[in-house]
Amino acid sequence: MLLNLNIQNFALANDLDIEFENKMSVVTGETGAGKSIMLDALSLSLGNRADTKMITAGADRAEINATFDISSNESVKQWMIEHDLEDNSTCILRRIITIEGRSKGFINGVPSTLSDMSYLGNLLVDLHSQHEHQSLLVRDNQRRLLDEFGGHQSLVKEIGIIYQLCQSQEKKLKNLLSNLGKESSKLQLLEYQLDELQALDLKEDEVALLETEQKRLSSSEDILRNCNDAINLCRSNDANNIVGMLARVIELLSVIDDPKVRGVAELLNSSQIQVEEASDDLQSMIGNIIVDPERLSMVEKKLSSIYDIARKHHVKANHLLTVTKDIEKEIASLKNIDTEVDMLEAQLSQCRKKYQEVASKLTEKRTRHGLALQSAVTEKLRQLGMTEANFEVSLKTKPADSVYTNGVEDVEFLITTNKKYAARSLNRIASGGELSRISLAIQVVTANTSRIPTLVFDEVDVGIGGATAEVVGALLRDLGTKTQIICVTHLAQVAAKGNQHLRVNKQEDGIQVTPLNRSRRVKELARMLGGIELTEQSIAHAEQILGNAH
Q1: Which residues pair with 488 in a beta bridge?
Q2: Among 46, 200, 400, 474, which one has the highest count of C-beta atoms within 10 angstroms of its own C-beta?
Q3: What residues make up the domain containing 70?
């Protein structure tokens, strides 16, 4: 609730510090005394637009501080926590406007945007004024009031969660389908690449084996020729071969009887034997050498294909098997997209089905409690002197091809003040006084379920009097037992019902706001009843209505 409103250099309010009590506070004063200045200042602290013309003449800036008790306001406390603002059971909204046109906002001393102040302000105060923005005119607030009245919050929360899930699944599916064409082209390319790789029919370590075989096959003719030449040199029919020449040397040395010479002859004899064995080995090897030009051509062709494909993939030839496995995995993943699409479509269908089930329950409850709300509000309007008025809760179904965050219907409050005319939106009501009474009727009916702790009514009593004024006052006082009420009024019957009475006076140095004790209150009520000059009759009447009110 609103505890204190401090106003500096705003219009005629040079220095005002107003303490508010809980329950019902009434604000009275003569026409032009400055009652509206209080509400204008309060609305600025709640994030409304500023006008430099409202700065007191001669001052360079205006400042408004509104202090609220939020100890039992869980929605505000939660918002403060979410925005890293100190939660000490008190919330101070501070607004500064300068003569240069600059505007600053603070929440508990922390610089804040006007949108944040406005959002927080809507959780703290509901201002029902002829001249200010009415939260009641906002359709989302109308829906909220109906849902709070009917106790639909759990269903609204559930449908909000389902809505987010449906939106998430729909986004995933949309992204998947939008990429489907691109993925199809990619799949075709990968399948072509895989066909190329599989056509090679590569085995583990085959590249290294082929390269070895290619080297051997390409040099087989040279090897064969060199081996034959070597054999011929070692032991051909020609007497000049190595074996023959060694035999002659040994024969020449055999006739020399010398131990050293015999040793040399033995070495030469051993060499002859080794040359003969080497020649036999070469002969044997020749039998295993294959000269196969066709096989060489096949090997070189396959290696050429392997090297070409390896260059395409920017890898070494011995890494192609790894490339093949990677492509196979990617193809499998892409082919799984169709399955994923089917799965997401099934999940989305199930989510929408669940949404419709919950939405149907919410629609049924809104329809039923909407009728109860419009009946109760219409009855209150009768009590408030609007005998021709009919209040309606309109539920307009949205297109069925989508899901919505708060259900499948738009909630709108409609009103007709004359049976001859069809019901219209609240924002089309010409009379501010009528709108204030409509607001009062709605707030009275929804008082037990509304989350707003402070309600401000500006001239709710315009155009009424007598018994209706008594009813308005009684309703406001009763409403004040459930929430804080601040009411600007011109009617003594309404003012008498207040638990706190504040009088606004215009002084030479600005306006003054004074809390009234009982005796001064009687005089103020008498003034409101009979004019500036107080009479015994007006004072007696004031005493009577004050006594009856309390």
Answers
A1: 27, 458
A2: 46
A3: 2-163+348-515
Lookup: tokens for 115? 């949108």
CB 51 within 8 A of CB 132: no
Q: Into how many domains does the chain fold?
A: 2
The tokens of 446 are what? 């929804």
DSSP labels, 50-64: P-GGGBPTT-SEEEE
Q: Quote the tokens at residue 492.
A: 């003594």
Residue pointed to by tokens 């000049």 = 240
Report which residue type is found at 152: H
- Distance (Å, rounded) from C-alpha 277 to C-alpha 265? 19
DSSP H or E stretch at residue 398: none
**98: its two tokens:** 């300068």
- pTM, two decimal places: 0.65
Q: Which two tokens stand for residue 429?
A: 């009501």
Question: 475-521 pLDDT, tens per residue?
Answer: 889 888 889 999 998 889 899 999 999 999 888 778 899 999 999 99
Sign of the torsion angle spanned by Cα atoms 250, 253, 257, 262:
negative
- Compute the 3-state secondary structure of the chain and give helix, strand, coil in percent, each to the nearest 5: 55, 15, 25
Query: What whole-number distance in Å separates Cα of residue 96 and Cα of residue 404?
Result: 39
Q: 377-384 long-range CB contacts below 8 Å, 24 or more apart? A: 377/438, 377/441, 377/442, 377/445, 380/440, 380/441, 380/444, 380/445, 380/475, 381/437, 381/438, 381/441, 383/468, 383/471, 383/475, 384/437, 384/440, 384/441, 384/464, 384/468, 384/471, 384/472, 384/475
**Are 125 and 259 part of one and the same domain?**
no
Same domain, 211 and 113: no
Provide the pLDDT for residue 133.
47
One domain for residues 7 and 123: yes
Helix, strand, or coil here: 183? helix
What is the CATH number for 470?
Answer: 3.40.50.300
